[in-house]
Amino acid sequence: MPEAYPAQYLEGLRLFNDEEFFESHEVLEDLWSETQDERKKFYQGLIQAAVALLHFGNENLGGAKKVYTSCRKYLEPYRPVYEGLDLAKFLDELQFCFQELIDNQEAYPAGVKLRDERVPKIAVPATD
What does the alpha-carbon distance between residue 124 and residue 24 come to, in Å, rounded to a whole number? Predict the structure, then answer.
């Protein structure tokens, strides 16, 4: 019986949850480049979520805010659940993580830090 989800997808989510955001982005980008169906924009949104968190953690706050906003545009249409993910919950947790940065109206925000306790985790879908 074939796997319910591509191995790269599951690996990308595992890396995301391990806060290996660059590696998660790389794995998911490989999958994205091979995808030619309705999942392509979904994968792009997950890639951008990883990149936004990578930028946030590296204190590239302007980049983090921009990519966060873009990732939401890609993922919102797939709510509430898609490819085994509770996207409604994930997007709420991602917003909670970014809220202080979102609320900062400066063009080049400063002084806002990524808080480890706010970094969302993705519930990995079952493969059976």
Answer: 14
Phi/psi of residue 85, each to 5°?
-100, 135
pLDDT bracket for residue 124 (50, 70, 90): confident
pLDDT digits (tens, 9 = 90+) for 34-88: 999 999 999 999 999 999 999 999 999 999 999 999 999 999 999 999 999 999 9
Q: What is the mean pLDDT of residues 23-43?
A: 97
The CA distance from 113 to 56, in Å, is 7
Residue 42: name the closest of 128, 127, 96, 122 by CA: 122
Q: Using CA atoms, how far apart are residues 40 and 66, in angstroms rounded to an integer?
A: 20
With tokens 């995808």, the residue in question is 35
User: How is domain 7-103 classified at the CATH fold level?
Assistant: Hyaluronidase domain-like (1.10.3450)
Q: Where are the domains of the chain?
A: 7-103
Asked if residue 47 lies in contact with residue 28, where contact means CB atoms within 8 angstroms, the answer is yes
